[in-house]
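[stage:ingest] chain + small molecule (iron/sulfur cluster)
[stage:ingest] validated
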Amino acid sequence: MALIIHEDCTACDVCVLECPNDAISEGDGILYVIDAENCTECVGAHDEPQCQLVCPAECIVSDPNYQESQEQLQAKYDRLHG
Ligand code: SF4
Ligand code: SF4
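[stage:predict] done
[stage:export] tokens:
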């Protein structure tokens, strides 16, 4: 399952550097966005989602539209990192 950023985002930028997959970027409005195609919930790199750990606004949550197994997330990570 990918993660999604909701409206409490303050655009503090803290999460961007923590992402091992460069999945987080500034959106069109104030909110930052996570590219579900690149988010592996940090599977492959860390034990838990780093963006959630560092976000001071606690505005990063699971995206129910992107249900993926551990194996699928690992395969995505392997694909992204060649
Ligand atoms: Fe990036 Fe990990 Fe957050 Fe997904 S969970 S956006 S891979 S830091
Ligand atoms: Fe927004 Fe949280 Fe990322 Fe800061 S760390 S930009 S509040 S999602």
